[in-house]
Write a structure and sequence with these properties.
Blueprint lengths: L3 H33 L1
């Protein structure tokens, strides 16, 4: 079993990466959506 601090670190890293991916996808998709409308 991992310590809770390590688990929290892993969770924070995963959330941070997901946040970066969401920003990247938003920056990528918003211009193409703007072209449609």
């Amino acid at each position: 079993m991992k310590h809770s601090a390590e688990l929290r670190g892993d969770l924070a890293r995963i959330l941070f990466l997901a946040f970066l991916m969401a920003i990247f996808l938003a920056l990528f998709f918003i211009p193409s959506l703007a072209k449609l409308f």
